[in-house]
Amino acid sequence: MKKLISGISALLTAAMLIAPMSAFADTTVIPDADNMPNPKPGTAGTTVEFSVDPAYTVTIPAKVMLEDNGEGIYTNSGTLKAEGVKLAEGKEIIVSLTSASKFNMQTSATAEYKLPYTAEGAFGKLTDKEAGGIVAKFATSTTVQNTPVTFTTDETPKYAGTYTDPVVFTIEVGDITTTAGE
Question: Which of 23, 80, 86, 172 has an alpha carbon 20 to 30 Å from 35's alpha carbon atom?
Fold first, then answer.
């Protein structure tokens, strides 16, 4: 009896595998009933779609060591690097730079003397030391993009010591704009 049930079960399974299958989509095309038995071909549309997420990597310098230019002014550049930039059309990466000390270096947190310095990026020197400003912009690109940011003391240091000031790079995606000076 077990062999008979197993045989019938196998036969039914094989029959189901060779039976014609119907596939259904979201759009159904029905022939024009007025033209039976020779209906006109029907047409329908569909949308082909996929998504690409925005992606990018921006690398900022970990440290920029200023060097004496031979005239008592200290300067050097660090490089901002953007790679794998894929953004929505009409968008760009905007890199801004600020300093909590308003671009003044000190030898210690308690030092009275503050050595003023300036940062300069792709759009010129940052003249508003309180607000900082834009130092680089990067567009969608498959190539690596590099932009230097140069830091220069505004005067010869009065005292010996190691001068430091932490700066903050802000990276955001915004609309592509052109303003005077760019």
Answer: 23
- Full-prediction pTM beyond 0.85? no
Instruction: Give the closest residue to 151 by CA, choosing from 165, 170, 131, 172.
Output: 165
Q: Which residues contact 69 (CB under 8 A, 6 or more apart)?
A: 75
Query: From start to end of 11-142, where are the E strands?
Result: 55-59, 67-68, 74-86, 91-99, 104-105, 115-121, 124-125, 133-138
Q: What is the 3-state secondary structure (H, E, C) of 48-59?
A: CCCCCCCEEEEE
CA distances in angstroms from 171 to 59, 154, 167, listed in the order given: 10, 26, 13
Whether the CB-CB separation of 97 and 149 falls below 8 Å is answered with yes
**Pick from 104, 97, 101, 114: which is nearest to 149 by CA?**
97
How many Cα atoms occupy the beta-carbon half-sphere of 128 within 13 Å?
10
SS3 104: strand
Residue type, 178: T
Pinpoint the alpha helices (H) of the chain: 2-18
